[in-house]
Fold this protein.
Amino acid sequence: MPSLPDKTPGQPASSRADVAIEQLYQAQRSALLTHLTRLLDDRLVAEDLCQDTFLKAWRAWDAGEPVANRVAWLYRIATNTAYDYLRRRRRVYFAPLYEGAETLECEPMELRVDLQEPVRHALAQLSPEARRLLVLSICAGHSAHELAAALECSDVALRLRLFRARARFRALYLQQSAN
């Protein structure tokens, strides 16, 4: 790979960024696209995010400290871009709450109108804290560690709260489904 231009006093910042990102693009685009395709399992989305990655890299080129390993930096941008995309696109799917239930096809919640009412009813019967924990964990995709930090409690305490909230929801849902 040819050496990339560093920040030099005589050359405008935008010109240095253009040359550097162009060289990175020529050298790394194919490998980066393969990396994103593996992460996302969708070639078209991976192509879009690959372009976004190079755009973000171009914008950030002169914003911070010099980058020691430019390829690793580019892959970190790409991976974070893919994870952001996956978080935004997360969908809620219903799975059976007990082993005797017939397996449902994984459809988005919006299409499963017949299941929405028992879920809403069960959620309404939960305490506000339990309902908030379940929604933030399952629907919004926050990890137990993130929730524990936000609530200023230990991971163990938060996991116990989540376990109890899930168990209570499951019991209420099964009771609602039986009626």
Helices lie at 13-40, 43-60, 70-88, 113-125, 128-139, 144-151, 155-178. The radius of gyration is 23 Å. The mean pLDDT is 78.
